Amino acid sequence: MKIRLKAPEGLNSTGIYGKNGEEMPVGHEMEVAEEPKGWAGRYDILSGGPVEGSEAITNLAGYVVKDKGGAWFVITKDGEEVTKSFRKADVEGFDTMSDEDKEAFVDLHKKEA
């Protein structure tokens, strides 16, 4: 199926990051194997159903940088917030870190109980 990314209501960016760690822009179109339900409110379906042979883009497992709005970001693991809030510059490059480095970063900046 083909989708187009959009900003959630009240925001001006998608809050969805690619493998390179950069935020995908509003209006970006892509083919996905199945509807990325974890991105609810951040895309419109343009056409079709699953594309045979394509891989679903969900980016929800493991550590993910999430845009909380208001220029604040947080690291989530499997959809749960696990760190304190950061500004964008503080989390740039997180997606390109090794798993061990991500674990150490999260451990250093744990969410307060």
Q: In words, what does this structure look like?
A:
The protein has 113 residues and is α+β, with helices and mostly antiparallel strands. The protein folds into two domains: 1-58, no CATH class; 63-108, no CATH class. It has helices spanning 88-91, 99-108; strands at residues 2-5, 29-31, 43-47, 63-69, 72-77, 80-81. Strands 2-1-3 form a three-stranded antiparallel β-sheet, with no helix packed on it. A three-stranded antiparallel β-sheet has the order 4-5-6, with no helix packed on it. A hairpin with a 2-residue loop joins strand 4 and strand 5 (72-77). The longest helix has 10 residues, at 99-108. The radius of gyration is 15 Å and the shape is globular.
Quick gist of this model?
This protein has helices spanning 88-91, 99-108; strands spanning 2-5, 29-31, 43-47, 63-69, 72-77, 80-81. The protein is an alpha+beta fold.
Give, in order, the helices and strands: EEEEEEHH
- End-to-end separation in angstroms reads 41 Å
Total DSSP helices? 2
Oligomer: single chain
Q: Major beta sheet, specifics?
A: 3 strands, antiparallel
Strand order of the largest sheet: 2-1-3
Whole-number total of structural domains: 2
Unreliable stretches: none
What overall geometry do the principal axes of the alpha carbons give? globular
Can you give the mean pLDDT?
Answer: 82
Number of strand segments: 6
Strand content: 15-25%
Class of secondary structure makeup: alpha+beta
Topology:
Elements: E1 2-5, E2 29-31, E3 43-47, E4 63-69, E5 72-77, E6 80-81, H1 88-91, H2 99-108
Antiparallel strand pairs: 1-2, 1-3, 4-5, 5-6
